[in-house]
Amino acid sequence: MSRLRIYDDQIPGTPLAEFHDHAAIEHELRQAGVRFERWEANEPVRPGASQEQVIAAYRGDIDRLMEDEGYQAVDVISLKPDHPDRATLRQKFLDEHTHSEDEVRFFVAGAGQFTLHIAGKVYEVLCEQGDLIGVPDGTRHWFDMSEAPYFVAIRLFTNKDGWVAHFTGTDIASQFPRMAPHPSVAALAS
Questions:
Q1: Where is this site: Important to generate the dianion (predicted)?
Q2: DSSP string, 97-166
């Protein structure tokens, strides 16, 4: 179940509010200037589907977003818990950073946790299968995939060169909860 927790950025131990209803999450994030949507596949996406098959299943929503927001490129990234570089990949985006272009991710499978630092609040967003999040350029945030990562995500870009992390140098990310391994990982083993 998707989840949003909102914290005061000076009080990391206790959320001010927590939401599980998608409409409520979308509303709260929209107030903070962050896009959050649910997408449905046009056709079934089977395990092991190619990048082209995954993109084709969501082509309508992808085209709408590309036309509305001017994104120029789309690709698919996937990661499983047995990836040999999972610890290094996890560490890469665990500290607070910004990008010079929007970070747009749609979760086809699995989950990931975006944590956004906006105007004195911290928005911890657990994104699951069917969730799209659009983090505007310049937004302070960090991303966690847990110690047992599992996700397949569609990424949209205006310019892939703009998707370089610019770290803020603060330790705020280490003060807030990390992502626990997601239940979808268990489904991989069965």
A1: 105
A2: EE-SS-EEEEEEEEEEEEEEEETTEEEEEEEETTEEEEE-TT-EEEEE--SS--EEEEEEES-GGG---E
The total of structural domains in the chain comes to 1
Tokens of 120: 């004195």
Chain centroid to Cα 88, Å, comes to 18
Q: Is 166 annotated as a binding residue?
A: no
Phi and psi based region of residue 127 (left: phi greater than 0; alpha: psi -120 to 50; beta: remaining): beta
Model pLDDT for residues 20-74, shown as the tens digit of each residue? 999 999 999 999 999 999 999 988 887 788 999 999 999 999 999 999 999 999 9
Return the number of other C-beta atoms located less than 10 Å from residue 138's C-beta: 11
Would the annotation count 67 as a binding residue? no
Residue 69 is part of which domain span? 3-188
Say which CATH number the domain at 47 has: 2.60.120.10
Q: How far is CA 152 from CA 3, 47, 168, 189, in A?
A: 18, 10, 28, 16
Mean pLDDT of all residues belonging to the chain: 94
Rounded Cα distance between 82 and 48, Å, is 15
Between CA 164 and CA 185, with CA 181 as vertex, the angle to 5 degrees is: 100
pTM of the predicted protein model: 0.94
Any idea which residue has 């085209």 for tokens? 63
